[in-house]
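Is this the right way to post structure tokens for a design question? Let me know if I should format differently. Anyway, here goes:
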């Protein structure tokens, strides 16, 4: 702060026109003996105040060059009887003194303004203050409004400009990064501390520069200097688009588009921001952004018990079982989880056919595992998810544990006439025979045919397998098998060893009224949840549960307006 030594003003001046009546120190009037007024001169009984009119002309002696007195004071002196020569001399001296006082006051005000607008040198560079009006209680005073930066604005909706205010300096730096990426130019920090920041274009010959510092009056950070014209060319590879910035943009994009792929993300940044991101950087950013959106895979295993309790609380009557492996040196290790929602359980028993498809698929998360599922068919031949489980590995023990819990939820398989269909998974066939011995069990002909073609590549033999499976009568089936035996006896032996009621329509059970020869129901479910199988365990389970609820509700609405007792699919089959 700069201080100036000056003589104090005795009296506050409210109007420049009142300078005539203010005595200033150092400029007192020099009243000599010869310049005093005549003692015999008399003043009128009182000073006339007529609200700003001119002096009374009755005396006939008006001073030449005298200034009009203040309208508010309204004080005029009666100078009647004063000698002309003495009055003129006194008037000239008084005017000279008044002009000197006015000039001194104006010079003093200019010096104060120069001090306020001076450049204060700090840390080797200048702090250039804007002319910001000080807040006043006067409602009539016009207060200048500066543009405000909004973080909620979209891409390219708001531009940086001189005088723009920010809440924090970090907010300014984030906005400057966005601006630099959109403009396709890089910058470097010339000064960067807690109170101010100066950025300059990375190209030495470019004049672009921006300066932001704290405004103490408004308690904000404000752009004080902004040279917005670039002399350099636009660049596609911008280092300001670092991994943290890419992750921040991908997080919102993944919430809106969970199935976003790395290739699609690269194109999105190129079209939206005009910047090229390297594939390795994008891959790491996608992984980090997915963790922010979906959660950490390791930490979610610690919340499995909480998730199970929440399912039981929100879905009364559901079955949720968790098995763990005890660990003497730490918390127990997760082994397997079984879920059968109450709505799925009751709906299958009440309105679906007694036909159940069994299948398993791999999980693509960091810790792997398998997903076991059971899928039925409703009256309109739509898939109906009954139960599902997450296990560490697909083997006989896990299948036996899964089928045992399923049997408890659905009831006696003999009384309800459950029929099962599956591929030839590891341990599934012996586990089913132990839990539900004698239950009808079909094999998927597609997998049987794939195993058959591994040994016999003949196109004729491949066709005979499907002819045998699609035979609807025993005589037709026997005829195709006899033809196969004449062509290749070993191929006939391979098909003949499988139970006939497991893969051909001619020997299927008529109880479920389903003639499916492929396990398409489970394959459809696996394809629908493919995008969920790579997510953390709780996120995956929630996605599967949401998918089940959405499909059930959508089909209910779709079929509610259909007339008649038959479903549309069955009605069309009858019309054919």
């Amino acid at each position: 702060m700069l201080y100036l030594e000056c003589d104090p003003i005795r009296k506050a001046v409210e109007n420049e026109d009142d300078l005539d009546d203010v005595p200033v120190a150092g400029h007192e009037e020099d009243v000599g003996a010869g310049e005093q007024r005549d003692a015999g001169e008399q003043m009128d009984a009182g000073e006339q105040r007529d609200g700003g009119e001119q002096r009374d002309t009755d005396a006939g002696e008006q001073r030449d060059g005298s200034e009009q007195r203040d309208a508010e004071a309204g004080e005029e002196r009666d100078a009647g009887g004063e000698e002309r020569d003495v009055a003129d001399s006194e008037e000239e001296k008084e005017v000279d003194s008044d002009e000197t006082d006015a000039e001194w006051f104006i010079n003093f005000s200019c010096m104060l303004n120069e001090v306020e607008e001076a450049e204060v040198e700090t840390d080797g560079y200048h702090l250039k203050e804007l002319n910001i009006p000080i807040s006043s209680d006067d409602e009539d005073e016009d207060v200048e409004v500066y543009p405000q930066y909004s973080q909620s604005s979209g891409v390219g909706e708001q531009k940086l400009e001189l005088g723009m205010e920010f809440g924090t300096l970090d907010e300014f730096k984030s906005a400057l990064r966005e601006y630099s990426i959109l403009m396709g130019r890089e910058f470097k920090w010339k000064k960067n501390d807690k109170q101010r920041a100066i950025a300059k274009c990375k190209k030495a010959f470019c004049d672009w520069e921006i300066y932001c510092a704290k405004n103490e009056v408004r308690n904000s950070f404000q752009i004080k200097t902004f040279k917005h014209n670039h002399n350099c060319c636009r660049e596609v590879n911008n280092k300001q688009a670092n991994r943290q910035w890419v992750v921040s943009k991908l997080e919102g994009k993944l919430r809106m588009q969970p199935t976003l792929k790395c290739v699609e993300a690269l194109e999105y940044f190129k079209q939206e921001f005009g910047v090229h991101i390297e594939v390795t950087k994008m891959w790491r950013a996608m992984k980090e952004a997915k963790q922010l959106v979906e959660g950490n895979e390791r930490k979610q295993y610690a919340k499995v018990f909480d998730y199970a309790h929440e399912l039981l609380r929100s879905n009364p009557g559901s079955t949720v079982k968790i098995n763990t492996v005890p660990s003497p040196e730490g918390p127990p290790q997760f082994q397997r989880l079984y879920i059968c929602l109450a709505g799925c359980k009751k709906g299958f028993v009440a309105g679906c056919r007694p036909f159940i498809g069994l299948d398993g698929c791999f999980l693509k998360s960091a810790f792997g595992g398998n997903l076991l599922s059971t899928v039925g068919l409703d009256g309109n031949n739509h898939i109906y998810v009954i139960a599902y489980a997450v296990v560490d590995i697909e083997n006989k023990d896990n299948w036996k544990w899964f089928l045992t819990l399923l049997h408890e939820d659905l009831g006696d398989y003999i009384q309800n006439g459950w029929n099962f269909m599956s591929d030839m998974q590891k341990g599934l066939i012996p586990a089913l025979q132990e839990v539900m011995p004698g239950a009808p069990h079909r094999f998927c002909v597609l997998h049987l045919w794939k195993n058959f073609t591994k040994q016999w590549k003949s196109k004729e033999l491949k066709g005979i397998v499907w002819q045998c499976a699609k035979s609807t009568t025993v005589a037709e089936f026997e005829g195709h098998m006899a033809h196969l035996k004449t062509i290749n006896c070993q191929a006939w032996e391979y098909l003949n060893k499988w139970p006939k009621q497991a893969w051909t329509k001619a020997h299927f059970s008529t109880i479920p009224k389903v003639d499916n020869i492929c396990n398409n129901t489970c394959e459809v479910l696996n394809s629908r949840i493919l995008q969920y199988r790579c997510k953390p365990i709780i996120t995956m389970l929630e996605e599967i549960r949401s998918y089940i609820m959405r499909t059930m509700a959508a089909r209910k609405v779709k079929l509610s307006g259909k007339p008649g007792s038959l479903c549309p699919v069955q009605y069309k089959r009858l019309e054919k």
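Format looks fine. Someone answered above. Worth noting: Residues 271 and 372 are 41 Å apart (CA to CA). Residues 1-95, 112-129, 131-141 have pLDDT under 50 and may be disordered.
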